[in-house]
Specification:
The protein is of the alpha/beta class. It has 13 helices and 14 strands.
């Protein structure tokens, strides 16, 4: 099996480097400074336990790859970039190869299944960041992260077991599960807080807002009949396999939304995290003012090029109160 990692960012970079260091055949797809750095010096993977440099081919577009029947394609970009990536894969001649959505949210699999018959979901639990162009850091031990893997919309097959074996050899704990989307909906609940730390800052008191966002989400899951599995702090695998540890000389700047705002990426994935709750609320008649407010706030932060932590708690409280009052009128 050869593994194509489409989107060599924090997660994709950690996966690509770990796989390559374990002896797997890997081709990365990246862009900009990250692509140039990888082509020049390879990809440096830092972790609490070791630092190592991986060398494997990296291209700027799927059209540069001569795809094979034994390729497994891992989508590791954010959801707002998925549709364009799928179209590039189709234009490059991909048809039957398995597509693994190694991404947050629950939208990517549906987008992929419209175009490709062999789609798989992957729940990502991996604290990682891009330290610099050509450098990624994964902050957990003894494993780089934990992945749940399964076929979409349900079940599993040899593609899941093959990828799980490759990931296990690369120090990423992988669990094949036939109900992977329950795991992904559980991860979605955790990711609702991404915009909170991005907007209000890592040191702000987020508990009240986080509780509101989660309560709305659980209400819409119930209304929509969506089952989910808790993969948060109560998941025993976290303490056993994924204990957070600092890396000397490397700062973790927060989650994926915080990192996107800090880089001035021009987009964030909130529309597909909190926005999923807003969509379900509107479809099933469940009020979701807190999630709707933070979706709009994320759009404003991108539009006004605001940096992480630019919104005060008092401003967010006032904005949420106004949004809730408007809903009642």
């Amino acid at each position: 099996m050869r593994i194509i990692v489409y989107g060599v960012g924090a997660i994709g970079g950690t996966v690509a480097a770990a796989l390559a260091l374990s002896g797997q055949q890997v081709i990365g797809i990246a862009r900009g400074a990250q692509l140039e750095a990888i082509r020049t010096d390879g990809l440096l993977l830092r972790s609490p336990d070791r630092t190592a440099r991986a060398h494997s081919p990296c291209v700027s577009d799927p059209a540069e790859i001569d795809f094979r029947a034994d390729d497994a394609i891992l989508l590791t970009m954010k959801t707002q970039d998925t549709l364009a990536a799928l179209e590039r894969l189709r234009a490059a001649g991909v048809v039957e190869q398995p597509i693994f959505c190694v991404q947050n949210g629950v939208t990517n699999e549906r987008l992929a299944l419209r175009r490709f018959p062999e789609v798989h979901g992957v729940t990502v639990m991996m604290p990682a960041t891009i330290s610099a162009p050509g450098e990624v850091s994964a902050f957990s031990t003894p494993r780089h992260g934990i992945f749940d893997i399964g076929r979409y919309p349900g079940g599993s097959n040899r593609h899941d077991t093959d990828l799980a074996e490759a990931l296990e050899a690369a120090n990423i704990a992988a669990f094949v599960t036939p109900d992977v989307m329950q795991s992904k909906y559980g991860k979605l609940l955790l990711n609702l807080r991404n915009i909170l730390e991005a907007a209000l800052g890592l040191d702000a008191d987020l508990k009240h807002f986080g509780a509101l966002l989660r309560a709305e989400a659980e209400a819409v899951f119930a209304a929509a009949g969506i089952p989910w599995r808790d993969i948060g702090a109560s998941d025993p695998r976290r303490e056993q396999l994924m204990r957070y540890q600092p890396i000397p000389g490397v700062d973790r700047s927060g989650g994926s939304t915080t990192q996107s705002l800090a880089r001035g990426a021009g987009s964030v994935e909130t529309d597909y995290l909190n926005g999923e709750i807003v969509l379900l609320g509107r479809l099933h008649g469940v009020p979701v003012p807190a999630n709707a407010y933070f979706v709009e706030l994320s759009a404003r932060m991108v539009r006004e090029k605001l940096k992480p932590g630019a919104i005060s708690v008092s401003e967010a409280e006032a904005g949420l109160a106004a949004a809730s009052a408007h809903l009642r009128t």
